[in-house]
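Researcher: We plan to redesign the surface later, but first we want a full-length starting point. Tokens attached.
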């Protein structure tokens, strides 16, 4: 499944890159700047800075395991990373810092959910 198969709402402005084609998923949830906290969390809003090179590592690992090819399923590697060139906006929430019930507002979480449905 290519990422184009994962539908977003028209209000989504953030960008991510993903290829969902195998049962091993490599992610880099902090490969871009992300929002954490805020009023709904009961604390102040802050920005989690980008962790350099994590997106490249996740994509390279996915490529390496895909080169191994499983005789049963073909490609093995999938990845999901933030596009490191996009500008931070209010919808870019750290997927490791979500309140219960807010998961579907996270683009990153929706991609992970799409991957889990196919595996």
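Model: Full-length starting sequence:
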């Amino acid at each position: 499944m290519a990422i184009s198969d994962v539908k977003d709402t028209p209000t989504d402005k953030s960008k991510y890159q993903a290829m969902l084609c195998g049962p091993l998923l490599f992610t880099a949830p902090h490969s871009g700047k992300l929002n954490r906290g805020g009023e709904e969390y009961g604390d102040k809003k802050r920005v989690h800075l980008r962790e350099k090179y994590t997106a490249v590592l996740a994509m390279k690992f996915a490529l390496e395991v895909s080169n191994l090819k499983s005789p049963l399923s073909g490609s093995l590697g999938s990845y999901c990373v933030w596009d490191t060139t996009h500008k931070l906006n209010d919808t870019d929430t750290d997927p490791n810092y979500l309140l219960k019930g807010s998961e579907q507002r996270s683009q990153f979480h929706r991609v992970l959910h799409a991957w889990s449905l196919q595996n």
